[in-house]
Amino acid sequence: MKNLFDTSTFFIWTAGIALGVILVIFSGIIYISTVGATDYFVPGKINRIQILGDSMILGQIISVQNVTDEFGGIDESILVKVGNREIYGYDFVRLEKSKIKKNNIDKNHPIIIERMQNGNFIGYLNGIVKNTDTIYFYSKPDKEVLLDLFDISNSIKSDIRVYEVEKIGNLNSKIDNIRRKINKLDYQSRRDNKAGKNELRQQLEEQIQSLESKYSEYMELIDELYQKSNSFALLVSDISGNNHIIPAINIHSYYYPNDLGIIPKIKLISKKLWEFVVLEPRESNTEGGIFPAIFGTVMMVILMSIIAVPIGVVTALFLNEYAGNGWWVKIIRITVYNLAGVPSIVFGIFGLGFFIYGVGGTIDSIFYPEYSPAPVWGTGGILWASLTLALLTVPVVIVSTEEALSSIPTEIREASIALGATKLQMVSKILLPASTPGIMTGLILAIARGAGEVAPLMITGVVKLAPDLPLDSTFPFFHLERKFMHLGFHIYDVGFQSPNVEAGFPMLFMTTLLLIIIVVMLNMIAIHIRSKLRQKISQGLL
Questions:
Q1: Could you state, in order of their start, the residue ranges of all structural domains in the chain?
Q2: Is CB count within 10 Å lower at the N or C end of the chain?
Q3: In a 3-state reduction of DSSP, which class is residue 195?
Q4: CB 484 within 8 A of CB 385
Q5: Tens digits of per-residue pLDDT, 213-241?
């Protein structure tokens, strides 16, 4: 046994087994996430299910699992997505196999209509409504007829979005800026105990009235567009034969899952994946896309890296090259190592107290006193969240940079000084370039930890839904005080806070998979840069 531990074979096998376990766990996570997401992206067949008592259900079978019945026997519990939330009050139903009389794939061309509200409708398409005129179909309708309907509907949706997002959004921004000026005038008047600048204030109020008048005109145009959109609709029926009218503006997409061939199914899956990446969420984050969460996650990681790396590198340089080996330096190093093990929620509490209430509150009291008690910077935002995570990850950068600096031979330092270089020149021209791969290693570890953190973000700026991105075309373009969405929090919200948990599971798994992919991509970019730097160092180019 002693000989076994004395040789390197034992440690090689131990490291290999550990690596194998890690790969199995990682592969399992990828597999579970991929399989769990298929219910949302891969359209399943629609079954016509007859239950004992002759009641009928139309839906997609999501899963089957063994359960114990009331007599102690084994039965199968079938989870069926029935959609039609306005009819049933829920999207899913569980059925026991022993109570199912007949279960067949429906061959009557059932349709799935993905709606902007109320989830999916599962039923049959009977006709279309155009300007109160109804055209009935007695078989599967012509695709061109439906495309014509949706071309009209999409054109109306586009016009509505232009007014709601662009024109009204710009008006609201202008009105908000003018109101800020009025608040500032009122604050200066109260502070100086003088009458307000009535002429200027009146001019500003007149500008607001003019903009509000324009706002009313836009709202009237939007109402007209909505009324116009309501004249285009689909006439559908459920399994019971009851007719329903779905306005075209409430329809996101439609397809016939039982009639899809391989190529159409691949196109549908590709379309769903693309929409998942580029669209905003809807239906309490259980449907639609997650682009704001992707954007918020990537922007937060970039800000965190920009803040953490310089602080970590400067600290490591000071400790390793300037501070010496005194007792107080040892205490600082021990403190840095301990910080790496502090729970992330503690950093969140610190960020809330120091950055938000302390720094942000001070900024508000100095530069924005007219908004009191409403905070501008004294509330959660992407800047404070990034700073909090920078503090969380900076110990990793410090340790990695110190190890990289320590690995550089002392002879190199002595040679550079002997050749007439100053201490600063030696550090900037020799040590920093040579330790760059180690710094990049710290950055990689920081990204891996920071991107997946959720607890500190929940109290420093992340929210369930943020319609305004921290970066847009409105001056000053970077709005670091804004709240943001994050993939990690999105997973928590959909998985544990959603009012419709079953409907959110596929979104949950797909978001998990996407978060892993983003973290891996960010790390791969950093690893590629580190590899290039190592090559340059080995060739003497740095």
A1: 2-41, 291-538
A2: N
A3: coil
A4: yes
A5: 888 888 888 888 888 877 788 888 888 88
